[in-house]
Amino acid sequence: MFRIVVVALVVLFAAQAHAQMTGSATLASDYRFRGTSLSNDQPSAQLALDYDWPSSGWYAGGMMASVRLDPENAAQLLVYGGYVHRFSTDFSVEGGVRYTRFTGSESYAYAETYAGFAYRQLVGRVYYAPNYFSNGYPVWYAELNDSHTLSGHWYAFAHAGYLRRSGDVSDYHVSRFRSDFQVGIGLSLQPCNVRLSWNTSHGAPDAVVGYPSAAGATRNAWVLSISYAW
Fold first, then answer.
1. Fold topology of 2-229
2. Which of 70, 88, 158, 182 has the fewest CB atoms within 10 Å of its CB?
3. Which residues does 14 contact at the CB level (< 8 Å), separation at least 6?
């Protein structure tokens, strides 16, 4: 799957000569992913690059982030590619594929497909991973994200996610479902962006979902991040 994603990205880069590239560098007090801390409640540095071909609808990109798993320091490597179709300036639909792996003794590599929509600031997606974090079972994940301008450079944002793990969970005697939520406030001072959010999750524990988070990571956390975009 990784080779397929890489080949697709190379084809996209070669097919369009006028791609628009953007990027960002972020320092966060914690790296929260779908309700769990992949940095073991510790700070994380992140670098993201995005390519967009407006005339064709194709896009691609990647991200690197420092993480702490098992509980060693490592890095997350993520690449993605997709296609978006715009019906109007307010509404669009999309579909794509992502591939994630980690450095260290265990790669926890997995691929997932997704489909979604965007209506103004509201963005929704559904993801399907047949082998989530290389644990041998499929996972569905749905999310909604929204943001609204408050006053001047200030804005509010929110996220809600819902995960369903397939496979047998009877040995754990717990639910196969998990929800996560985020609410926060941001300050946009281009090219810098500061965000403060409250993050929480409920339902299946990390071990059941398959997250390789280190022992002791909390379910509830305030997260402060500072980003520089170009």
1. Porin (2.40.160)
2. 88
3. none
